Every structure is written in C-alpha cells, then in structure tokens.
C-alpha cells in the first residue's frame, strides 16, 4: 500500500505539472471582426475624445480578418483632447479579465500600424505613445511609443529598451509585439518582449528582470490602453500635428502561478506563490469535472499551501482564475 501511494504521488506530480502547463487561458481577444468599436467586448472603451474620427473601425488595414481600430490625434484641437492631454485611446479599465495586480503573470500581444508616419528629423523629441500598461492612480507601469524614429519600451522610473531601432521602413506595415510580464511590487518582476516588423520572425528584444514591475501608481490595479497619447507633443515644440495609428489582435493570456506538490506522511501538500490574486485551487478526479478545493490555504513563507490527504488513488489539481 505504501509503495502504491508513493507511486500515485509521483504520477500525480507529473500530471499536476501537465495540467499547469495546459492551463494558460486566453482571457481577452480584440480583433475588431465584430465591426464595432468595442470589438463586441462589454466595457471596452474606444476613446474619450469627441472628434468623429478620433476612433474608427477601419477596413483600410487589418492584421487579422477585415477590420482594425484606428485612432487619430491632431494637436491644438480640443476634440482630440481628454483629461487635459492630446490623446485618443481604447481603455480596458471596464474589462475585468484584463486587469492586473501584483502577483499576476500574463502574456500580452498587439499589432500596431503607424499610418503615414512622418519622420522625425530634428528638434524636440516628444514621445507618441501607442500602448500603455496603465497603473491606476499614477504613472503607467510600462508603455510603448515612438520617440525620434525608434519604437521604444519605457519602464521603471525612466528606463528604456529599443523595440524597433528604425521605424521609417515600416510606415503602413504591421508591427507585432508580445510581452510576457510577471507583475510584482517586489523585486522579482520581469518583462520579456518580442517584436516582429512586417512579417519578420518574432524576435526577443528585451529581457528585463529582477525589478518591481508593478510600481507605476498607487491604485490597486493596472489595465491596458492603446491608440495615441501625445503627452509632450505641442505645435510650439514643432511636433507633427497629426498622428494616426491602427491596432489589431490585442490579446491577454493569463498564465497560472506554478503549482508545486510534495508527498509526505500520507498527505499531499500543494503550494503556489503568495500572493496569487484571483486564483483558485481546483481538483478533478478525471480532468473533466473540476471543483474548488474547499480547504483553506495557509501562507507559509512566500507560498500558499493546502494539505490534502492521499485518500484517492489518483486526482488532479490546477490553479485557475475564473
Ligand atoms: Ca482584425
């Protein structure tokens, strides 16, 4: 019986990791194929700007299917201003599946097309932002924008990674981006970034590790914004008056925290990082019907732990964010 229990434990451990690896979940996908400004997603806001062409669903360019979303900002025109700055941005603060907190791990993709993008030649160097990981009540945790003729990722206090060194060959071409981010208010966060311009292979361009990724603001969550935000661009500093961008294929894939298991003295201990906000431990006898583990987890060191008796010959566990 003892041998059998140990075997069962090993078998289970293998399967736990298998379930964990398979449990990545696409929780958000805006491809605009509904033809609507919210891509058919309740709570997805397209813009706060009032100009009729501040945000449009467009068939002029599409990374997938027929449609993308188009944003436009013209300086010195209040119809392209919101919250006091020239901007027109989609905003997921009303889409709960996209919100992130310290302890979350997710993979983000989006494609951006810089429409007839006028080159920078000299003078002031404002940044035109096309994507934000926006922390509430404060600065973004990270953002992507065009400065001079480079597509850059800004993160931390004022750190920067170049994503595309020269965007000038890529006017009206799609640039695909992928970010793998562990959000943390401690020093164990990371951002990995990949870029593909105009159909080239996806290439790793950033691997920023061991810093507090979740530290831009003091609010209790972050969300996503895409479009155009031109915080430093003015006609007085010679910035290009009108900028336009398309976005498509915006997705969020939630990666569950790693689940670890020990077997000792006839009991299984399941452990995963604390905090892991929103995640529930579930069990299944057959990988088909899943139910929540009702035993309350306890915090031990940096982990949540649940101990369950090894009374069944087999069983499966997973972490899931419903
Ligand atoms: Ca599309």
Largest sheet, strands/sense/barrel = 8 strands, antiparallel
The CATH architecture name of the largest domain reads Sandwich
Tally of separate domains: 2
What compounds sit in this structure? calcium ion
What is the N-to-C succession of helices and strands?
HEEEEEEEEEEEEEEEEEEEEEE
How many β-strands, per DSSP?
22
Strand content: over 45%
Instruction: Tell me the structural class.
Output: mainly beta
CATH topology of the largest domain: Jelly Rolls
Work out the helicity level.
under 10%
Number of helices: 1
Radius of gyration: 23 Å
Give unreliable regions as ranges: 1-22
Round the mean pLDDT to the nearest integer and report it.
Answer: 90
CATH top level of the largest domain? Mainly Beta
Shape: elongated
Q: Termini separation (Å)?
A: 37 Å
Structural description of this entry:
Strands 1, 2, 3, 6, 11, 12, 13 and 15 form an eight-stranded antiparallel beta sheet that branches. The chain has a seven-stranded antiparallel beta sheet with strand order 4-5-14-7-8-9-10, with no helix packed on it. By secondary structure, it is mainly beta. It has two domains: 2-23 and 257-320, Immunoglobulin-like (Sandwich), CATH 2.60.40; 25-254, Sandwich (Jelly Rolls). It contains one helix and 22 strands. Helix content is 7%, strand content 46%. The chain binds calcium ion. Residues 31-33, 62-65, 67-68, 248 line the site of calcium ion.
């Amino acid at each position: 019986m003892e041998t059998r229990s140990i075997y069962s434990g090993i078998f289970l451990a293998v399967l736990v990791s298998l379930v964990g690896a398979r449990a990545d979940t696409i929780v958000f996908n805006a491809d605009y194929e509904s033809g609507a400004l919210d891509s058919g997603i309740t709570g997805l806001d397209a813009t706060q700007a009032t100009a009729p062409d501040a945000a449009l669903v467009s068939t002029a360019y599409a990374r997938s299917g027929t449609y993308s979303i188009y944003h436009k900002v013209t300086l010195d025109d209040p119809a392209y201003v919101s919250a006091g700055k020239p901007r027109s941005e989609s905003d997921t603060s009303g889409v709960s599946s996209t919100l992130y907190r310290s302890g979350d791990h997710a993979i983000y993709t989006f494609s951006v097309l810089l429409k007839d993008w006028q080159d920078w030649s000299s003078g002031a160097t404002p940044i035109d932002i096309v994507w934000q990981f926006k922390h509430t009540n404060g600065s973004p945790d990270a953002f992507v924008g065009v400065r001079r003729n480079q597509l850059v990722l800004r993160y931390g206090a004022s750190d920067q990674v170049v994503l595309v060194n020269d965007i000038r060959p890529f006017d009206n071409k799609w640039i695909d981006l992928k970010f793998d981010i562990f959000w943390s208010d401690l020093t164990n966060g990371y951002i990995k970034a990949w870029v593909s311009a105009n159909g080239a292979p996806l290439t790793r361009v950033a691997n920023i590790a061991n810093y507090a990724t979740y530290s831009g603001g003091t609010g209790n969550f972050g969300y996503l914004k895409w479009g155009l935000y031109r915080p430093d661009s003015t006609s007085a500093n010679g910035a290009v008056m009108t900028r336009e961008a398309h976005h498509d294929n915006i997705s969020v894939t939630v990666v569950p925290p790693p689940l670890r298991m020990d077997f000792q003295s006839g009991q299984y201990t399941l452990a995963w990082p604390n905090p892991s906000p929103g995640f529930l431990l579930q069990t299944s006898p057959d990988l088909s019907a899943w139910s929540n583990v009702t035993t309350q987890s306890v915090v031990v060191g940096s982990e949540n732990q649940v101990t369950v008796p090894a009374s069944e010959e087999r069983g499966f566990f997973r972490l899931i964010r419903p």
